[in-house]
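Input record (Table S2, row 358):
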Amino acid sequence: MKITDIKVQTMEVPLLEPFRISLGVITHAKSAVVSVETDEGKVGYGEGSPGILITGENLPGTAAGIELLKKDLIGLDPTDLEAVYCAMKRSQAHASTVKAAIDIACHDLLGQKAGLPVYQLLGGLNNFIETDITVGINKPEIMAAKAKAWVEKGFDTIKTKVGTGIEEDVARIKAIREAVGSHVKIRVDANQGWSAKEAVQFIQRLNEYDLELVEQPVPYHDIAGLEYVTKHTDVLIMADESCFMATDALRLVERRAVDVVNIKLMKCGGIREALKINAICEAAGIPCMLGCMAEETNIGVTAAASLGAAMKNITRADLDCTFSLSKLPFKGGMQVEGANRLVLSEKPGFGFLGLKED
Ligand code: MG
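Output record (magnesium ion complex):
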């Protein structure tokens, strides 16, 4: 099989409401959808969803990066995943959403050629994964009401955004815990909003609200700060923005700087790099979560869910961005069953059926 062309289409899908985190406000999913075409008539789909607050890329840049890759990728066999990945790395530094888009599409093609769903090619532990649901930053009573409504729909884990100030943040967690009761897990994501010492003080004050974990308490570059927080608190500490690539994961586990690592395809550049992160963490006894950008659609989430379902060391999922979309732009892929279960297609590849017509 050979790649004959790569087409890119950008789209922006409004969120049902603006989503606020400590770094800023997100209003739209933004996706560069790629179709990788082949000489056998098969087409693989992928997406690159830049979250400028996290990856530093924007949508025109992602689309332009994919266009630039064409000259390096046309003629390659898309199912030679390592060859494709090496060609992308030679062509562009970083550019993780560019690489993720192509990598997802090539996994789709590998599955189609093999006649197997991608989750099975990746290990096939399960054909589904259960996700938490995230509540954006707002007034405590609004966050509590939203959390309660999600629990009533059937979610058993609430992830809540914080990071604007210790007193406000404590009020938010208190309100959410009182609203959802003691049986619901609460994970907290500060998106780099605190210093290491603030984080330790904050987590000590929150002990009574029984947090499951705290995600990215300190700025992404402060690995010593992450290590300090992990060593001075009992709650699990998770890296998100501090871990883009496998090399970041290695640095984190060498220092025992975190207890859990959040893998996102849009940070690391696709499934191939994600597998390396997971392997490093698993060898160190550190479980992973599979997360998504708020800007992703059901293409990226299907790919992430396929990896998360397949691997034993991926014990948590934060793959909730499609619940915030005003419409699902793509046909096929994963389907939501019940409140929180993302069930993968049994069709070869990811089971994508193309863009919906407006
Ligand atoms: Mg995060």
